[in-house]
Amino acid sequence: MREQSARTAALVLCILSYLLVGAAVFDALESDAESGRQRLLARKRGEFRRKYGFSAEDYRELERLARQAEPHRAGPQWQFAGSFYFAITVVTTIGYGHAAPGTDSGKVFCMFYALLGIPLALVTFQSLGERLNTLARRLLLAAKRCLGLRRPRVSTENMVVAGLLACAATLALGAAAFAHFEGWTFFHAYYYCFITLTTIGFGDFVALQNDGALQRKPRYVAFSFLYILLGLTVIGAFLNLVVLRFLAASAGAPQRAARRASARRPGAPDSSRPGRAPRPGGSASAARRAHRLETCARDNLGFSPPSSPGAERRGEPDRPRARRRSI
Amino acid sequence: MREQSARTAALVLCILSYLLVGAAVFDALESDAESGRQRLLARKRGEFRRKYGFSAEDYRELERLARQAEPHRAGPQWQFAGSFYFAITVVTTIGYGHAAPGTDSGKVFCMFYALLGIPLALVTFQSLGERLNTLARRLLLAAKRCLGLRRPRVSTENMVVAGLLACAATLALGAAAFAHFEGWTFFHAYYYCFITLTTIGFGDFVALQNDGALQRKPRYVAFSFLYILLGLTVIGAFLNLVVLRFLAASAGAPQRAARRASARRPGAPDSSRPGRAPRPGGSASAARRAHRLETCARDNLGFSPPSSPGAERRGEPDRPRARRRSI
Q: I want to staple B178 with a disulfide (CB 3.0 to 4.6 A). Which of B143, B189, B233, B246 is the partner?
């Protein structure tokens, strides 16, 4: 437990440092350009005001009107196609904000919609991603057999490399497509795909906002929706492969050491399930394996898998865990 | 495997239906209001144009200037406090978009920053959330003991209710605070907190954008950052408790049935780890438990925990899994 808390504290310090470093770098990269743009805009605004003789109040009103007109610039956003696009940005948590509910009832429905839709989407992408990983594993195995390897085996490293390539290909394909359809540069289209598929979704670049695409280009609309959903599956499959493994593999040692220490102390409090009797019998190796899996799941995922009674009461010493190489 | 694919297909149909229903409802709620706002804006714009005698081109230029001036309206966004705020919206994937990198180097750095920062944040919130769940479990246990219960036990239902209350309290507290500091209604502030803590982050409501708060109100700035980070921890802890459990518990039966069927067929292909010899010995019950845990982890999380050799080759029949009630 103490080790888990230490690890958590270390992670918190780590992320805080990461934010501080990021802030400094973004400041350095963007601050001057921001001041430059602001000065340029102020100058142009001044020119307009002198040309037309705006009062300050009228100019502010004009700016307000222009801001309010912004969401309408790309055509209606709340007809069926636009609403479907919006619904995607809600359940995937991309949340561009190019359209956001204007009515209070829309806001209320949006919150309930997200409450159910986000977990549903999480579970679906998780499930799709796992199927994709399984398919990739089979294809890699078949490829290795075709290459004539005697005992073909798909290692974790193989899967990670394949995953990275799949992510890169997904981003590049999307970038090429959106650069063509939206008239963006390849770099900006790549940036758009990246920001979308990581679900950050700033909204500085949003597809389907030019030329009334939502109403007039149904095939491009369908492509965009499919790209987002399939792209999220690929990214999700890769995250499933890499991040969850890391969670499970990296934190094993500190907890085992702590549990070994507490198991040797008679009467030490067990924080998990008081009152459960240890199961009778069982070989040492199978019981140790089950024990490792349960504690691994509990400590790293915050829950114990169902039907895993408390084996940690046995007090058997743990073997050092070898890092698995094959899937 | 076939059951897993059927489950995945069912989930995909489910999410597609959910998106269609959502689209229809948002269309019904927002479309008319959108047209109404658009007509009102067009009328006001016409009044201004008649008052000042704009050319169409000049008016478009004016609107463009107003759009570009929008990010500057709330003061500089890229000094240190603003950049830190931006960095938070990147690693948490909230991505309001109130500020987005204007320079290409800023965009490039942003992508690399997200690539490392998002997994780091995921692991940190996961870890913090698990600690929070552990603390909550202990507090609930202590509370039950104080209430004089003879064999106090914290059930999953207790934890879920506690989690729901914690989420609701977090949202309500945030709503009260931001309504006060930003001058929003309680409902809009609640909506802001909800959209932020689900990481959707439309950007229609963004804190720290009034009265130059980023530069002039350091304590409010610190509060906002802390609120976002702690609020995400609470939400993450609840998701950890509920969604991951559901993933583990709900999909067990189909895979066990499938594996039982395939294990009875001699020579049936094993898609996971060909070439591994089964481990010798072991009691039936401990081995079955380990087997269940491994398959549960593999099928639902898409990976096998480390040091879990292929037990599924044993071909032992599985007991039906009882749903766990206590943690």
A: B189
